[in-house]
Amino acid sequence: MRGIISRYRDLMPPEIQAISDDKIVTLGEGGTPLIRAKNLEEYLRTQNPKFAAQVWLKDEGVNPTKSFKDRGMTGAVSYEKSIGRAAVACASTGNTYGSAAAYAKKAGMKCFGLVPEGKVTPGKIFLASMYGATTIEIRGNFDAAFALVKQLKDVGVVNNIHPYRLCGQATAAFEICDKLKRFKRVPSYHFLPVGNAGNITAYWMGYTLYNKMGQIPFAPAMMGCQAEGAAAMVLGRDIENPETEASAIRIGKPARREEATRARIESGGRFYSVTDDEIKEARKLLVETEDVFCELASATSVATVIKLNRFGRLDFWKMVTVVCTLTGSGWKDLDTAFAQFIPQKSIVIEPKLDDVMDVIRSK
Ligand SMILES: *Cc1c(COP(=O)(O)O)cnc(C)c1O
């Protein structure tokens, strides 16, 4: 199985390059679709007739455990395995834990997830348990779990503070540039949901490296997108009790605040916040226009584009290239989806051909 490390081996840090391909723990992560969102562009034009930008969606929900976390986990778990560790642990709002559990199982290691009690979607806990991991619920929020996990001894802590996680996540930026190059495009703006601020740091690492190597003539402005009730980067201070239904980004004390701030300044980007209602609207619109079903947190990027377009805040009237990352799949976040989408009632009939045909003709 080929994952991101084998594909971008030359761009990995020496410590990862020192691990041979057969010792790399991979589930075949990366290589995710970058979709030109023409129907979404059409919608944005109805909102603002001057809209002339291209919008591309990087669908990270198709990774092995259905979020971008897999890109980082292959490096982190491979490294912990290579130094002989028997167990990994993480604090998580769900996706890091699911990913850690899967990669740990592949490596024959134990996995422990410290999660905020009652605040992680059941699908994510289920996934991790299925992979044999141990769930430890903390009577507190993610930030409390994270403060704890950092103090653990003798286990590999695979949160985004791990030295070899972000180098893997940076490969998403390489993939985007590689694909857009075929269309003679370079990202102008990159919109990304931000929680603990690791991924925005990783993307910026990736883009700056590619820029330095001459693969892209310029790097995009990094646009960090947060939920209004958990907008620690927008406000420029930590939040004691972050609140949002987008549970993957319900984080009040971003671990990579400094690096993410630097990414914003160096790239000429900004942090924005949107309401939970705007996030839900965007998620629905993504299903309707582009057939992509992402989790709530992921829709924050598109919700921000919609909001900025409505107010004409950016130069979207130019032929700029906008990339939005959809960080995770909707299939692990079904309870919020059930609450939002009213399922169509099924039609119950006798097992008769005429009755089936009646239904078909009636539609
Ligand atoms: C982890 C995660 C985020 C936030 O990424 P950070 O690196 O913590 O900023 C956003 N969306 C989803 C779906 C995630 O799993």
Counting DSSP H or I runs of 4 or more residues, the number of helices is 16
Overall pLDDT: 96
**Order of strands, widest sheet:** 1-2-10-7-8-9
For the sheet with most strands, the description reads: 6 strands, mixed
List cofactors, ions and other ligands.
pyridoxal-5'-phosphate
Q: Unreliable stretches, pLDDT < 50, 5 or more residues? A: none
Helix content: 40-55%
Intertermini distance:
44 Å
Shape: globular
Q: Beta-strand level of the residues, as a percent range?
A: 5-15%
* Rg, Cα atoms, Å: 21 Å
Q: What structural class do you assign from the helix and strand content? A: alpha/beta
Order of helices and strands: HHEHEHEHEHEHEHHEHEHHEHHEHH
Beta-strand segment tally: 10
Brief digest:
This protein has 363 residues and is α/β, with parallel strands linked by helices.
Secondary structure topology:
Blueprint: H1 4-7, H2 14-17, E1 34-36, H3 38-47, E2 54-59, H4 69-82, E3 87-91, H5 95-107, E4 110-116, H6 122-130, E5 134-138, H7 142-149, E6 156-157, H8 166-169, H9 171-181, E7 189-193, H10 198-212, E8 221-227, H11 232-235, H12 257-267, E9 270-274, H13 276-290, H14 300-310, E10 321-326, H15 334-340, H16 353-362
Parallel strand pairs: 2-10, 3-4, 3-6, 4-5, 7-8, 7-10, 8-9
Antiparallel strand pairs: 1-2
